[in-house]
Write a structure and sequence with these properties.
The chain is an alpha/beta fold. It is built from 12 helices and 10 strands. Strands 2-1-3-5-9-10 form a 6-stranded parallel β-sheet. Strand 6 and strand 7 form a beta hairpin. The N and C termini lie far apart (59 Å). It comes from Candidatus Nitrobium versatile. One of its GO terms (molecular function) is iron-sulfur cluster binding. It holds the Pfam family Oxidored_q6. Residues 15-180 form the NADH:ubiquinone oxidoreductase-like 20kDa subunit domain.
Length: 329
């Protein structure tokens, strides 16, 4: 009986939802098991790092790498799995764009340590101890991986063959990718986004759209949106206009705005910049003829101030992979 191709999955800086998404293939997970020898997944299997190191280079057919690069260990595993894998896929928004961990790029490393270990109201730490890379104990020296100053995407530390977006990716899209690999179907050029569409979420959203003129923004808890009308038309900051399709517009279907987890549409370099540019053409400050410049500025500022969280809205999933990449010193 021929040896099955090897499959691995690694969990870097992420929440673990990508592992759940894989299991959410439901009965198709049996097809994955039939097609692959699942050799490495710290969340599910007891395979050790040394076992992976002992494998010949290129012996793993497919690695789904989820999570951003936050620590020295994350980067080390990225390089190791790149060597051992014929196909390395950035699986999910964290590895593709940095995602929620990437918002940490708005703060310095020392701010994290101070908040978590010294100033947290639920932490008792009278000695003011913070993690160190080396600590001497009677048995020897304990080592911890370095906590980097910045979160990076997988592609910012090693070569990536393909990207599957989503927080997490939708099971049907995962199934499509796995099926293509198993059946040897032609894949797009290296570096492509797979398991998603090419246009925007608006293209697969069934809500009715009109010519938008926005006089302000409202948050979803402040009112009950019309289920038929475009959320952006109702003043809700829906990122669908700047987000790649392929999810089925699941959030707008349940009366919630798209938050952007599938990343920018094809051809868009920066998701946040795309959204800001779109809003710039939609904002309505009323009649300005004859108004002094100070009043025009006041109206513009009032509209902008109604946006609750610039970074968390426009770059919730994409800050490390954006033009900005994070806090500018």
């Amino acid at each position: 009986m021929p040896e099955k191709p090897k499959l691995s999955m690694y969990w870097a800086a992420s929440c673990g939802g990508c592992e759940i998404a894989l299991v959410n293939l439901h009965e198709k997970i049996l097809d994955v098991d039939a097609a692959f020898d699942f050799v490495f997944c710290p969340c599910l299997l007891d395979t050790k790092k040394r076992d992976v190191e002992a494998m010949p280079d290129g012996s793993i057919a497919l690695t789904l790498f989820n999570g951003a690069i936050r620590t020295e260990e994350n980067e080390e595993m990225a390089h190791l799995l790149r060597r051992k894998s014929r196909l390395l896929i950035a699986f999910g928004s964290c590895s593709y764009e940095g995602c929620i961990p990437g918002l940490g790029n708005l703060s310095e490393r020392d701010e994290f340590m101070r908040t978590v270990y010294l100033e947290n109201p639920t932490t008792e730490n009278p000695g003011g101890i913070v993690p160190r890379t080396e600590t001497e104990v009677p048995e020897g020296v304990l080592h911890l991986p370095s906590f980097y100053d910045r979160v990076r995407t997988l592609a910012q530390v090693t070569g990536v063959d393909y990207f599957i977006p989503g927080c997490p990716p939708e099971p049907h899209q995962i199934g499509n990718v796995v099926e293509a690999v198993v059946q040897g179907k032609p894949l797009p050029p290296k570096g492509s986004v797979i398991g998603a569409g090419r246009s925007s979420v608006c293209e697969e959203c069934s809500r009715k759209r009109e010519d938008k003129k926005l006089k302000g923004f409202r948050r979803i808890y402040e009112f009950i949106p019309d289920r038929e009308k475009c959320l952006l038309d109702q003043g809700v900051l829906c990122m669908g206009i700047a987000t790649r399709d392929g999810c089925g517009a699941l959030c707008p279907k349940v009366n919630m705005p798209c938050t952007g987890c599938y990343g920018p549409p094809e051809g868009v370099l920066d998701q946040g910049a795309k959204m800001v540019a779109a809003l710039g053409s939609l904002l309505d400050i009323g009649e300005v003829k004859g108004l002094p410049e100070e009043e025009i500025d006041r109206r513009i500022d009032a509209l902008i101030d109604s946006i609750p969280d610039f970074a968390g809205t426009f770059y919730k999933y994409s800050l490390p992979g954006s033009i900005l990449k994070g806090r500018i010193a």
